[in-house]
């Protein structure tokens, strides 16, 4: 496909819409994937695009950002005071009072010289040169004076009703009458007083986001709204929303000539979609061409033959009716005639069927088929979405009859940009099918002779998803990560920011290449997790989930991603983890060695250093083993922000009794790696555990030693040739693995991670309480 930079949406900025207070979403030239943990703002983003670009009639009061509700109610209080002092010349209501709380979407398009005529209605100045051009869509009061009068009249009516009740009943009734405040008023009258308006933006006033917070430009007081929809004729928009299941697939809506609500088109079944597609693009009765004449001739022949048969069958009945005196001499005579249209053949339950494969060569085999509702939901959903994409493409390209009708109109021209929104395509789809779909979706939108090599007609696909399988298939540069900012950082309630993942590492950085390759070869759960755990090797990867399940119940309820990356490479993910704002625990090894020499059993006072790159260069940036062994917990972490940090967990000293003698005393043991740390934490278990490999070597080492130092040396020697993954599997095969004691350094790390997520949860609970207070 020919690369071109023409006629595409470069980015959108969403403000004051639900939890998206001020965010910028950069759109890739082809497919953009919106990812993030649950409740991070992906759905808000898709709904914002849908509300502003597809159907302006969907707005409700809950689309206003929660933190602005108090401000909106304050506007109501100010209007109330204005009404009470109106005779004294109080301040008059103005739309400027609302400017900081109104939901907006700024659409910035890259426009080239040959496309200027398409954007003439939104040119900022006559001196504008091809490049970025922007338009703001704002949900705002239509006529502020009428709005003010109705609101204050409703307040007066409520006040008078209470006064009349008090006079008649002799007491004050504690009844809440509408409207209690401005938000209460808007709950009933929002659409009567608000509508979408469009404004031209100034490309010279574009500002980069600061710490992930977009900086949308402020409209001048003299800004005038543009009549109609400025995107009409420029962008064709379709959508597949998340609430479709398979029986509620939406064909989407297109940018119309006005900003008013557009009619919903619901398609219940695949057969309905096919019938609609046939009617719009293939029906030979509609604007027939030469190729349709043969089909029309066959239909007319069938219709004439059917009419003759009907006349024969109904002749006796018509004679009987005639015997009743009808029709009379002057009455019209009855005639029975048929009207056959091709779409009638698809207007039944079995219009779409799935044919069953039969064994080749079977004698007397009859082709078998099932109705569409008998197939699996996943297959139905896949076929439905693929067919919708084909329908969107052909509707945009005016394929078939729709094209002939459109071209008969004056000033017919294809929109240069086709924007398709898909929300959570993974519903009912198996993992492999999800990956196939996202790989092929954009290609389906471009599968038309006039699109494949087109430098003028552009398609952009925006997909929101919770699926790590879909994220895995996307290009790293096309991911947009939605990060939830807690109330302590954002203000009254949590809001979201958007991270353009392609910009996390910068360009031409070796670390960036590693992160991309690593995530593509493992999985992308990282983009949907509440927290991350980076582990050293396969033994930790297998056993730490077991530790969490049996010893950290609240942590077990969270969505954690566990990545096996090793101490030599964990630090390479630092930029990504920092931008994602994930609480991260790095479980790694002490890896002590002689300076400039080989690995060595840990020991104090020997001048040993760590061979672990994570410990040396990331957290805690300490090389000396003696310092690492005594480092306080506060220095084993680095904070990203108030609620995000990375903490490292490596082997720490532990007190043990190696000998079973009655006079045995506790000694300090210094583990080297995870496996010997697990042994030191569970000496009595491994002392009596039968097995092979490392299990057997560890048992023999415990039996042959009486001091912690000797046991440590023996374990260190055994680990040089032992199979660690096999050891982890042997441990999991224990009769009661839940009885394992977690090594102290891992237990402390998991407890810290648990506290971080609990703190985040409290932020959410407090924010929800604040939201209830604002709503009240």
From TrEMBL:
Hydrolase as UniProt keyword: yes
All copies of domain OLD protein-like TOPRIM, residue ranges: 527-591
InterPro entries, sorted: AAA_GajA/Old/RecF-like (IPR041685), Bact_Antivir_Def_Nuclease (IPR051396), P-loop_NTPase (IPR027417), TOPRIM_OLD (IPR034139)
Keywords: Endonuclease, Hydrolase, Nuclease
Cited Pfam families: AAA_15 (PF13175), OLD-like_TOPRIM (PF20469)
Domain Endonuclease GajA/Old nuclease/RecF-like AAA intervals: 9-471
Domain of life: Bacteria
GO molecular function: endonuclease activity
Protein name (Swiss-Prot/TrEMBL): ATP-dependent endonuclease
Highest classification ranks of the organism: Bacteria, Pseudomonadati, Pseudomonadota, Alphaproteobacteria, Rhodobacterales
